[in-house]
User: Fold this.
Amino acid sequence: MRNLTVRNGRIIDPAADRDETGDLFVVEGRFSENPPPNGCEEINARGLVVAPGLIDIHVHLREPGQIQKETIASGSHAAAAGGFTSIVCMPNTDPPADNPSTITLITDRIRDSARINVYPAGAITKNLNGEEMAPIGSMVQSGIVAITDDGHCVQNHELMRRAVEYARMFDLAVFDHCQDYNMVGNGVMHEGYWSTVLGLAGWPRTGEEIMVARDILLADLCKSRIHCQHLSSGGSVRLLRDARTRGIQITGEICPHHIALTDELVSSFNTNYKMNPPLRAQEDVDALIEGVADGTITVLASDHAPHAFFEKEVEFDRAPFGILGLETELALFLTILVHQRKAIDLKRLITLYTINPATLTRLPKGTLKPGADADITFIDPDLEWVYRKEESLSRSRNTPFDGWKLKGRAVRTIVRGETVWELPAAHLDRSLSGS
Ligand SMILES: [Zn+2]
Assistant:
């Protein structure tokens, strides 16, 4: 628990509708209206944005069971380097996080080894197989902040309805990986021109949209909140826009790869272009960005999905889905949404990474208001740099963004007043001289 003064930063706290240059005080690990006693640490934040600690609600940490890909320690370190102070880890571990004992095992590991705040999500169904509901109430007591079968999707609408109704009793959000199994079949890439040319099985947009429509109907029926994860299709955005206009408690997130890349890239057969849902067409990219710009999409996330080198180094159809995300997501969204497309400003981007995900999961985070935990992300929105996968703090290297020139990044991450990651000075100098 630390005391700290941050001087001269551009303080952006969307939860308090604040954007001004000033000082920020931390007393015993919490934000304070009054400065701490003399002699405490001071940080000069001139030229930097001082934001509430960023939150990523869609991260795969692979522990327990697949620690060759990632651990809670390595993944949370990578998250800190991406500017994140809080993350939600997905339950598709081995064994799956579908019962209170496994949740307790995970929270124990978090307490022992995590560098930042890590919150577990529990499964909707036992073994993530969509057949029998997991013990949601006892998992809530063990510390889950959401339920999801991510990686899988509950196909039985009646079972999904009961899960949403059950979650409502605990004011718990249900996250959904929207995929209709019959529509998608064994699809490995977007169904369209390129899947035909390449002779790969297609994963049609409707395979996602049908489940988004199902979730809208259930959110309305159950009067409870459902959050659609990693949306990829323009049609999903249109469905969400209409439903939200009617006041239904449905939300959606997008991930950077779905606006940075398109399905044409799969023609390289590089398995780092294989994700679920798949990369889609330019019209989908444009619709997703429009959805962010008009407020339909309210959460940004990574779907950080580490895989070992040997697992991705196989034929395209046989490779696992997913890529790294924690260390590149903020920079990609800044580069594309703020700098290139000018779809949103910096304050709005911070909203989508702080108070919005905090509100969805009911986490007491995402603001710089006095009394809140002093989680802070320092951002240089204009710093030009090159992402090098060898420098990643993750245990895996499956990324399509190696060597990309990006604009903007986090430069320091603070959790409860303690610096948990800082951009090495050498890196800062090199980046600046290279720009
Ligand atoms: Zn998923």
Q: What stands out?
A: Residues 430-435 have pLDDT under 50 and may be disordered. Residues 205-222 form the longest helix (18 residues). DSSP finds 15 helices and 18 strands in the chain.
